[in-house]
Amino acid sequence: MTTDSSPAAGLVHRNTLLEMDEPDDAYLLASEQQNAPQPYRRALVVLATDHPDELAEENSKLCTELLQEAGFTVDGAITVRMKKSKIRQAIETAVVGGVDLVLTVGGVGVGPRDKVPEATRDVLDQMVPGVAQAVRSSGQACGAVDACTSRGISGVSGSTVVVNLASSRAAVRDGMATVAPLVHHLVDQLQEYSV
């Protein structure tokens, strides 16, 4: 009987594991970044309407669901009357509360009571027209007429992004799909450059 001191084929010798090098720093850093939890993002939905009804409740649920899917924690969905002072107060309260996104729904048409863009403009420090333009463009592509004819605006107030959307289900659904990656980009910039 012959004895062979070499390890059997397919088996790893125990000393081989001890001889392995440490992983390099770049690999460890990349691994940590990949496994890092997503940043905590907060949002508030402001529904502007003179007729709080079933549609407003549906929009509230839809916005909350879509924001959660986009990685936001929704602090709440509030309904306000189509009065410029009430809309502005709701946006300002959210900004002071430190949310990352205020999403207003409704009040962006051409009717005499549609005052959301004006109330929003009063609160903004910087306009970010590209977001509103993207919402109108995608609204036209998906056939949401109220989205593509919206007077909605977007911008930044303090460290909060504010976006106006039209109130139809199609406008909300398409608007959220368009807005989510843009808002995440803006919030990243605001957090990176905050003092």
TrEMBL record:
Pathway: Cofactor biosynthesis; molybdopterin biosynthesis
Superkingdom in the source lineage: Bacteria
Any one of the GO BP annotations: Mo-molybdopterin cofactor biosynthetic process
Annotated SUPFAM superfamilies: Molybdenum cofactor biosynthesis proteins
Pfam families in alphabetical order: MoCF_biosynth
Keywords assigned: Molybdenum cofactor biosynthesis
Protein name: Molybdopterin biosynthesis protein
UniProt domain MoaB/Mog: residue ranges: 45-186
